[in-house]
Amino acid sequence: MAPSTVSYGTLPHDVQGKIEKFELHVEEQQVRDFKQLVRLSPVAKECYENRGEGHNGLGVTRAWMLEAKAYWESEFDWRKQEEYINSFPHYKADIVDDDGRIYSIHFAALFSEKKSAIPTTRLHGWPASFQEFLPVLDLLRKKYSPQDLPYHIIVPSLPGYTLSSPPPLDRPWKIADSARIMHKLMLNLGFGDGGYVVQGGDIGAAVGRTMAATYPECKALHLNYCFMFPPDDASASELSDTEKKGLERFDAFNATGNAYGREHGTRPATIGHVLSASPVALLAWIGEKYLEWSDAASRLPLSTILAEVSLYWFTGCMPTSIYPYEEDFLQVPHPKGYFHAQAHLFVDKPLGYSYFPRELAPMPRSWVGRTGRLCWFRGHEEGGHFPALERPGEMLADLEDFVGEVWE
Q1: Active-site residue among 8, 225, 290, 325?
Q2: Which domains does the chain have, with CATH numbers?
């Protein structure tokens, strides 16, 4: 079992509203039903498109699905994963929105006892969860004691994802709505006067950018993802060979890799039903992304992928986690460069960017610099779309170096 972090669980003295400690426990009957569903769910018969070993560019293969299903059924231990999750402090906060509605927002955290600790929140995307950042929290609790931890690290579940309340039933939910709720969470934790830093990837990068561009209390933004299209004045001469290869990966994603997003955005009800009917179907849909979007040099363990899919299944969050794509594909027209509310919002605050070459959309440094006051950059030789899982040491070093440079 991972070491206890109860000593990192002291809330700041000036918290507001209802914030309670939380421990994850999936009921035993639900776990048994899940195992039965995995066992009874068939895998598609062999065909040309799903043949081969590994990933062949036409979707997740039958060989991988059979291997993953067998491991899920007989070896994967949800209780062990649950124990690891609960070794970190967790909370649920009641956040009162501007219209008076209350959202229960889950977050994991490491709180420092230092008065000068810097409040930092890390925001996930799809198909990830707060679990994505647990390896970084693990490194932090091994590196620092509660007395000398330089940061308060807050890792929420976005609205609609896993352990947080879903969006309302009577209206669409947008990136700006999630940004508002995440901002209110940081204020409720007492970080309004001194401010806070946001770090994000994927949809979390969009939420974080919106927070940084909207709320003065958000003092700085660090991204490992900055989806954007070529600026009008972009020139090939400003690109390195690594960046040119990265844009080839981006082009491939636009050509053959984004059909899932269009389905999420244009038929969210249908895909929500499909992926709520079978854990094996959910595994195929989400597992493909972990295989395709991560770096082969830091291939994620099967147990890590299954932990994320299992949490999505147990919380039933798939239908309520895909709302950002409606904004991308249905609510048009958009400003030039719009996707997940990212590049069109200029951040006139310290902006940091970590470049991982196997990201699905690795944007050149000069392009990212056009979207904000870029003052910190680091390029990596390895790593993909899930760097907090793939390269947690590098991700932590980047966050510490950025915060240390920009925080006054």
Answers
A1: 325
A2: 6-406 (3.40.50.1820)
